[in-house]
Amino acid sequence: MTGRVALPVVHRAMVASLATNIRQGGTSAQCWKYDLSQDRSLGGSVRIGQSQGSFLTHRSTNLLRPAAAAISVEQDDVNTYLPKGDMWSVHKFGGTCMGTPQRIQSVADIVLSDSSERKLVIVSAMSKVTDMMYNLVHKAQSRDDSYMIALEEVFEKHMAAAKDLLDGEDLASFLSQLHSDVSSLRAMLSAIYIAGHATESFSDFVVGHGELWSAQMLSYAIKKSGAPCSWMDTREVLVVKPSGPNQVDPDYLESEKRLQKWFSRQPAEIIVATGFIASTAENIPTTLKRDGSDFSAAIIGSLVRARQVTIWTDVDGVFSADPRKVSEAVILSTLSYQEAWEMSYFGANVLHPRTIIPVMKDNIPIVIRNMFNISAPGTMICRQPANDNGDLDACVKSFATIDNLALVNVEGTGMAGVPGTSSAIFSVVKDVGANVIMISQASSEHSICFAVPEKEVAAVSAALHVRFREALAAGRLSKANINVRAIAQGCSEYNITVVLKQEDCVRALRAAHSRFFLSKTTLAVGIIGPGLIGGTLLNQLKDQAAVLKENMNIDLRVIGITGSSTMLLSDTGIDLTQWKELLRKEAEPADLANFVRHMSDNHVFPNKVLVDCTADTSVASHYYDWLKKGIHVITPNKKANSGPLDRYLKLRTLQRASYTHYFYEATVGAGLPIISTLRGLLETGDKILRIEGIFSGTLSYIFNNFEGTRTFSNVVAEAKEAGYTEPDPRDDLSGTDVARKVIILARESGLTLELSDIPVKSLVPEALASCSSADEFMQKLPSFDEDWAKQRSEAEAAGEVLRYVGVVDAVNQKGQVELRRYKRDHPFAQLSGSDNIIAFTTSRYKEQPLIVRGPGAGAEVTAGGVFCDMLRLASSLGAPS
Ligand SMILES: NC(=O)C1=CN([C@@H]2O[C@H](COP(=O)(O)OP(=O)(O)OC[C@H]3O[C@@H](n4cnc5c(N)ncnc54)[C@H](O)[C@@H]3O)[C@@H](O)[C@H]2O)C=CC1
Ligand SMILES: N[C@@H](CC=O)C(=O)O
Ligand code: NA
């Protein structure tokens, strides 16, 4: 892990300097009390990379390794000018990009399409070849004869690729070189076989052939198009010095000299160079170790002062988090060198930190691009801000987790102000060879905690117990509580590390990521009751979601849909183009408690809303709990606001005291702005005197259309068919639905009425009140058609129409629901379709009431009203208006 950590040099430096202190001064911990413990259950840390700040420096050392197989390099002095600067662009193509002859051809096409004056192309071996080459060495030194067959396979692979890609003289000369190289390799491997051992140089010599062959093939492929191209064995140019286990540092001066010399012999406009391989100052072949081709590209880019180094790979760029853990991860368009350095942990681990060092000093941007998706612009890693306002995108760039760590906590009151405590602790840690990933100590000095790889914690713990045995034996230790969390921020300010329990890591990662990368108006939506209104709402969301995201930064994700028998859950968002099909095929048995848990347990999205599109009383009874959990509620269901007064008041009190929202515009007048108008009046200090009107779309439709041409039962069936009625149309005909709306408006106006306080004139014939189902009721309704025809004729004879009205009499604190007769010229007689008309008489609108009129029922308008509430919620959460 340390090889991939963002700041390995810094971590090691810390440990090393503490260790030095110990040797020089020893520890001086006298009479101090402490607790010592370690927790194996602690699992991971979340790192948060930040922007801003200054560079970290990189030091190199000068260890040299024994020489082995040498390569020859001409040493004559040639003073041809090596052009440097903006005319050069450097490209690097990894093994996957060079994986097949077709891909090598695509690489050639990409290189040829770059209009830069000069191009330097660094290539890796064809995919899997480096492993095949290491395997050859491994087999030979284990005296496994099959290395000969394995070498044959390597040969066949390259011969087949070359035959596919090249022809004529190019093919012949490549194959002749391949034959000769394979003969040398056979000899080298045979020597290794006999010795039963391969020196590092021998191994590097063998392994580097993958690059030699891929570079030659690409160079021939480019030359085929007529472009001037040479290939370069980078071992002739790139000189490195070992700088630690599995690590080398470039010798820039010597490399530049050699590059100049090489160029004087072959001043081509396009140079294809081998990645990964290099040589020592003594011309011994070596490699830049794993991920070395990126490093080669960065060094060569620095040597020619390229305008840009493009690293081609198979991902669209650098992700904001590991996309396997956070599906919301996005490609970052820009990163500073320091951020990229810190972020080298990620799943899309596209860049080794040391790759950044050579280009950083010359301020050369690195661009990570996807060879298989040329249209993606990739991620640019550079020093300068990429946009006008001086910021590199967001203030926080990325999140990553490191698993399997253990946190060691050393704690005691005697630690404060005692010099040497930490050096004593870290001396012990160093002695067992454990790598400290993170250290945290508060200025109170009473505790110090640090994270080490879990596999090393047992040794660390045992060594600490031995080191502090006396204090333990003297009973100066109390039983320690394990510090389950720690947080650390280094002075570089590029990284904040938080230690968490392993099982919390991915959740924490998602939550932290969403906080920075999702807009604060990202809403996770749970739809309850995908019937007429719920289903229409889902379709409206499907059609409008992209527009809202694009224009208003409102990101609506339906992460759950539940009906009464099945439910469909998703962590990141259901594909609304096929929600019906998914609900049929992939649903699980409905369980409202689990559904709500799915919502509240989701840590990806910053806001959650449950949309109750049922007419169910029991669903409505849960609003209080949902609001308490911080889940917003939106509904067209009238049951909560027209249910028992005490529950209603409790719900509203909770909602007003919290920052959780509850919207229910569609409960009265469907999509018409009734609740919002009333609120607007009240909140601006107007006084409601009376609200009167036709509140039922169903009853409006019935009486607007029951004009002697169709029977009453036919018109009721039409209203049901049109989607105006409640799931059970008796709720409409009984006047209960209107009474509920009257109660909702009355309570909104401050009246404390119960549903039972409203006298209701029911239109349901008594004989049908006890029907066991809505269907049975509809079937039996025609037998009352004659009674209705009579009532209608009587009214008509008097020049009047029938209208079902509701009244909130705020002055007298009461409500009414009645079937009335109105003269034909009365505004209520002028309605059509499912029109509602609501007249607000207030202190301000006293002479002429404020009137809202329009369709008050139906799928589209009602779902539209619910949708409006969702946008109202987004707006409350900060969406632009
Ligand atoms: N139709 C309209 O014009 C208007 C309707 N509304 C209200 O909209 C709501 C829905 O009405 P419609 O869509 O017409 O009814 P619907 O009967 O078509 O849909 C209701 C859906 O809820 C489901 N459901 C019932 N109980 C459930 C439970 N416990 N858990 C999960 N799902 C459950 C049903 O299976 C059905 O899919 C009602 O409250 C109604 O009063 C409000 C304004 C206008
Ligand atoms: N069934 C209701 C629907 C709206 O609330 C009506 O007819 O008005
Ligand atoms: Na409304």
TrEMBL record:
InterPro entries: AceGlu_kinase-like_sf, ACT-like_dom_sf, ACT_Aspartokinase, ACT_dom, AK-HD, AK-HSDH_N, Asp/Glu/Uridylate_kinase, Asp/hSer_DH_NAD-bd
Keyword NAD appears in the UniProt entry: yes
Cofactor(s), by name: a metal cation
Pathway connected to this protein: Amino-acid biosynthesis; L-threonine biosynthesis; L-threonine from L-aspartate: step 1/5; Amino-acid biosynthesis; L-methionine biosynthesis via de novo pathway; L-homoserine from L-aspartate: step 1/3; Amino-acid biosynthesis; L-lysine biosynthesis via DAP pathway; (S)-tetrahydrodipicolinate from L-aspartate: step 1/4; Amino-acid biosynthesis; L-methionine biosynthesis via de novo pathway; L-homoserine from L-aspartate: step 3/3
All copies of domain ACT, residue ranges: 410-489
GO molecular function: aspartate kinase activity; ATP binding; homoserine dehydrogenase activity; metal ion binding; NADP binding
GO terms (BP aspect): homoserine biosynthetic process; lysine biosynthetic process; methionine biosynthetic process; threonine biosynthetic process
One Pfam family this sequence matches: ACT_9
The keyword Transferase is assigned to this record: yes
Keywords: Amino-acid biosynthesis, ATP-binding, Kinase, Lysine biosynthesis, Metal-binding, Methionine biosynthesis, Multifunctional enzyme, NAD, NADP, Nucleotide-binding, Oxidoreductase, Repeat, Sodium, Threonine biosynthesis, Transferase
PROSITE patterns: ACT, ASPARTOKINASE, HOMOSER_DHGENASE
Reactions performed catalytically: L-homoserine + NAD(+) = L-aspartate 4-semialdehyde + NADH + H(+); L-aspartate + ATP = 4-phospho-L-aspartate + ADP; L-homoserine + NADP(+) = L-aspartate 4-semialdehyde + NADPH + H(+)
PANTHER family, per database record: BIFUNCTIONAL ASPARTOKINASE_HOMOSERINE DEHYDROGENASE 2, CHLOROPLASTIC, PTHR43070
Function: Bifunctional aspartate kinase and homoserine dehydrogenase that catalyzes the first and the third steps toward the synthesis of lysine, methionine and threonine from aspartate.
Recorded family membership: In the N-terminal section; belongs to the aspartokinase family. In the C-terminal section; belongs to the homoserine dehydrogenase family.
NCBIfam families per record: asp_kinases (TIGR00657)
Subunit structure: Homotetramer.
The name this protein goes by in its record: ACT domain-containing protein
